[in-house]
Design goal:
alpha+beta, Peptide Deformylase, five-stranded antiparallel β-sheet, globular
Length: about 200
């Protein structure tokens, strides 16, 4: 089932999410619905706060990035096959020299800006079976994970922009929060939530 994606301005996007355990109700159904929602919106990642749940869960599928002709065959294959569910993630290390990449977000449609992040991470997480893993990632996979991890920490990519850039996009962000935007996937806007 495709769920509505919560738009910029909703307080759930600024909350630090809480851990869950294997008894979380209908978890496998939720994960399936989140993948369906992400694919329906042509995303490469989706975090639970983006569907209104302040829990430490996100998923990543970098297959759409595998079309980039500038990447090596090995990098393209890695991106084409990487798909992972992250439960209760904790980034243990971020290292290397920060690099810029033009990021967007399903909760903030039609806004893309360069964000600086470190290229390598080490992360501890549980998969959908609650098996614990500690893994290292780099490049675009690390970046997508960092972006989604920020969501469970209550941080948006726009929070990482300079005050000048924030001023430039303020009008767009206000329109998004009011639902004054054309999008081709289901969204829930803060203005609509208040009317209920």
């Amino acid at each position: 089932m495709i769920l509505p994606i919560v738009a910029y301005g909703d307080p759930v996007l600024k909350k630090k999410a809480v851990e869950i355990d294997a008894n979380y109700p209908k978890l496998s159904e939720l994960i399936d619905n989140m993948y369906e929602t992400m694919y329906g919106a042509f995303g490469v990642g989706l975090a639970a706060p983006q569907i209104g749940l302040a829990i430490r869960l996100f998923l990543v599928d970098t297959e759409p990035f595998s079309d980039d002709e500038e990447l090596s065959d090995e990098e393209r294959e890695e991106l084409r096959t990487f798909k992972q569910t992250f439960i209760n993630p904790v980034i243990l290390e971020e290292e290397g020299e920060e690099w810029a990449f033009n990021e967007g977000c399903l909760s903030i449609p039609d806004v893309r800006e360069d964000v600086f992040r470190k290229p390598k991470i080490k992360i501890e997480f549980q998969d959908e079976n609650f098996d614990t893993h500690v893994k290292e990632f780099d490049g675009l996979i690390a970046r997508v994970i960092q972006h989604e991890y920020d969501h469970v920490e209550g941080v948006l990519f726009t929070d990482k922009l300079s005050s000048f850039k924030k001023r430039l996009i303020k009008g767009k962000l206000t329109n998004i929060s009011k639902g004054k935007i054309n999008i081709d996937y289901r969204m829930r806007f803060p203005a609509m939530s208040k009317k209920r």
